[in-house]
Amino acid sequence: MNKQIIENMQNKNKYLSKFACQDEKAIYFKQNTQSIRTPFFRDIDRIIYTLAFSRYSDKTQVFTYSDHDHLSKRMQHVQYVSKIARTIGRALGLNEDLIEAASLGHDLGHPPFGHVGERILNKISLENNLGYFNHNIHSVRLLMEIENYGLGKNITLQTLDAIMCHNGEFALGKYSPKKKTKEEFFEEYESSYKDNTLLKKLYPMTLEGCVVRISDLIAYLGRDIEDAIRLNLISIDDIPTNIVQVLGKQNKDIINTITLDIITNSVGKNYLELSEGIYQAIKDLKDFNYKNIYYKANTEEEIEKLETMLRYLFKQYLSDLKNNNSSSNIIKSYLNNMDEEYKRKNSLERIVLDYIAGMTDDYCLKEYNKYLNLNHNKNEV
Length: 381
Known about the structure:
The chain is mainly α. It has helices spanning 3-9, 39-48, 51-55, 74-92, 96-105, 114-127, 135-146, 157-164, 182-191, 207-230, 241-247, 251-266, 276-292, 300-322, 329-334, 340-345, 348-357, 361-375, and strands spanning 174-175, 272-273. α4 packs antiparallel against α5 and α14 packs across α18. It has two domains: 38-296, Hypothetical protein af1432 (Orthogonal Bundle); 300-380, no CATH class. 57% of the residues lie in helices and 1% in strands.
């Protein structure tokens, strides 16, 4: 391969901090073919060409029951995370390719209807002895065991780990990477199905993973407020004065304030740190969002309808598999395309859970309505 091409592709490595994850440290689970692309750069390509990535565009971020054109979907959210994280990463001299790969892949495992759908699938999963269902863990499962027709994508350990440990729901004042081996990564991954408390104890193995984690939080805090204002759920003047005085009122101000604080307090360090005042304001804003947005995003009636739908589909698809109903989409559009190893090593219940978790909002609704037309009068449900 032309030496100049390789040097051009690797040129950015000259400017990385000593705390950055170097390309040469990338760890693969399977043998990788040679390419002009560096490992994490290749992860980006492998992620954006997944089928799951294309489904981001019709997956709920917060608000399900609205057709407002300017409300965030998962596709916008992961791009916001990527942009914020790469800004922090570039300022700190970190590996932007690793940051972008993890940012774009961190929510691939989110089911239809956002966190409401996630909570419902978690109940269904536990009832069927499949363990806990968490979107960050399912993102990793999807890349390792479901994409590429059940053979998985050959994504680096560092990217998978950053995805698994990304949960921005758990705010911290300091984010320190935790070194781990392949074996330790797998132990955390597999234990997450059995121990739900482990989710709060997962820490990324790289500083880049820490950047993605805090950027997930930064990306949704202010943007979710914008969406809520568009729906007249809240007014911008409802944001408490003590928060506004520290972070600002507009989403752009919130992003800029937190981002600059992280960069200023973290440069030259092997960890990320927030100033005490900014960290407290983030916690206060997060509490405000939960009380005034997330808890009100769906009514009890809407949540009950979603649970009825997801439970109905789970039961119906399980029946279709047991009875080999070849006209069912879970067979003709999903299982028939999967590798034999996937079919052999997964229970019927796990296959159904994988299928539903991968659905977009619209597809889930269409499938449900199709079965209702076939089997019921719509007014019965």
